[in-house]
Amino acid sequence: MPMSRTEIATESAEKLMNQLCKHWAHKLEVEQGDTDSRVVFEEGSCLMQVEPGKLIVALEALEEGSLDRLEGVVDSHLQRMAGDEELVIVWEN
User: Fold this and answer.
1) Distance CA 75, CA 90 (A)
2) Which residues sit opposite 23 in a β-bridge?
3) Phi then psi for 50, rounded to 5 degrees?
4) How far apart are CA 48 and CA 56, in angstroms?
5) Domains of the chain (ranges, CATH numbers)
6) Helix residue ranges, H only, 1-93
7) Cα 81 → chain centroid
8) How far apart, in whole angstroms, are the C-alpha atoms of residue 87 and residue 64?
9) Across the chain, what does the average pLDDT equal?
10) Which among 44, 41, 49 is positioned nearest to 8, based on CA atoms?
11) Of 55, 53, 58, whose CA–CA distance to 5 is shortest?
């Protein structure tokens, strides 16, 4: 199963995770705790973990092409939720 991971430096990690989970809960399966969450997409899943000063995001996909698509979806949604905060997102597979 292809996997990808990123650590995003931000003081808004909890807020970002909560916003994304709330946004996706309308159409996807979302499991959310205080500092971690899991969102299930048709072609894979997104795990998010809040740590001091950062948000850790891990993606698992059914195939390589799906992983690239999930990276783009999660990246664009995080950037939108961050508003004026500029996030540096570098995916490592």
Assistant:
1) 9
2) none
3) -90, 130
4) 6
5) 3-82 (3.30.310.50)
6) 13-24, 64-82
7) 11
8) 24
9) 96
10) 49
11) 58
